[in-house]
Amino acid sequence: MQLNRRQWLRSASAGALGIVTRDASAGQPRTQPPSPTNAPRDLRNLKITAVRITPIALPDPPILAASGAHGPYFLRNILEFETNAGITGIGETRGGESITKALESARTWLIGENPFAYRKFQARLARAPSAVYTGIELTCLDLIGRATGRRVCELLGGPVRERVEFSSYLFYRYAADNPIVLEDPAVVDARGRGDKALDQWGEVRTPEAMAEMAWKFKQKWGFRFHKLKGGVLPPDVEFETLRAMNARFGGREPLRIDPNARWSIPTALRIGAQLHELPLDYYEDPVAGQKAMAEVRQKTGLKMSTNMCVTRFDHIPEAVVVKPIDILLVDHHSFSGIPACQSLGLIGDALGWNLSQHSNNHAGITMAAMITMGAVIPQLTYASDTHYPWLPDGADIIAGPNLPIKDGHMDVPRGAGLGVELDRGKLLVAQDRYVRSGMRNRNDADLMRRLEPGWKNTLF
Ligand code: GKR
Ligand code: MG
Questions:
Q1: CA distances from 348 to 70, 157, 288, 295, 377 (A)
Q2: Which CATH superfamily is domain 43-156 in?
Q3: Residue segments in the chain with a per-residue pLDDT below the cut of 50
């Protein structure tokens, strides 16, 4: 019998999946759930004693974006820090060989460091991609939470909410058992055709098919906001898709479209003029760069958002002058970590911006981190993006079933730290896939050119 997450947690706390510890009075092993109550008293000398970095590949369906088609796997790096207190913290960050190597080269100096002082690591990593520091910081935060018996959201002044809202993230796509996908030499799992395919959503490349998938996403997860990933089909077809979705939802549900800057300014203005007839939540990155975004925003009068033209703190001064957006999609991987993103809330207050969250493919540790972000930033009031529904059931590397999405919301996990545990068996499978697939970086253009010979991501 397959347990849902709530049943799984109940059985974990009843001992079936508990952690084995020593009972001091009896000297006997006893089981206990992953609870926040076992923090050692003296944490002043907490030190990192071992660092494990595990690059992994998790299965991904051929979903489409301006960058092309997602390959058979997406890559992540999983971190584990052991300490002299016997507590281990876990973290997850972006995948790719350069991130793995940069994390590996931090290993030597991390050993012996106090995880409470994670801020000082930032200077040492100034030249590495930001996902390196943010992965290390996240692991330290999880560790501090476990050591003190607190959730990360409590360490950071929250929670300001216990449930965080997410939007559906709808991609045009090929079927998971498309022969070109199955022939990809990188595929090293047992996925096949029909009911052995990675997922059962099929091919979705028309307005009608997308409206149907949007409806089913709503039935399954209860989403109340719906984001269409654009920049794939001709812009008029994508607009027709929004119309079809709106009709399917009876005109009542807020919609978003994100062409990932694949539209020219005239196209963005023409489609923008038509978007007024729909219940638009926001218009995300139709064009490239702050100036072009500001022009579209000013001429259409639509609410605009980005995860492309303001992605670092040093992009903000220009945005203050140029005014390209109303909503900033924050991502803790690029904005220097969760505590740093809390300042974006205050900056947003000053500039009149609201916040939402950007997502790339991720596993359950990042999912817990994203829920935590939503729980510690009062200004994060727009439903966040997440790719999590695209991760096939059972493929996550956390213990137990995937974290549940109900009524479009996710609960902040209850356990100490980020509140999720690694499943070592699943982690090893995902690491083995990484090794055997040979995939080392994301390259959406590669599969797309095989699916659609001659494909180029030129501007619409
Ligand atoms: O997963 O293909 C994708 C998305 O297009 C992703 O790469 C974007 O970074 O989700 C992102 C977005 O909102 O632009
Ligand atoms: Mg976007």
A1: 33, 18, 21, 21, 11
A2: Enolase-like, N-terminal domain (3.30.390.10)
A3: 16-37
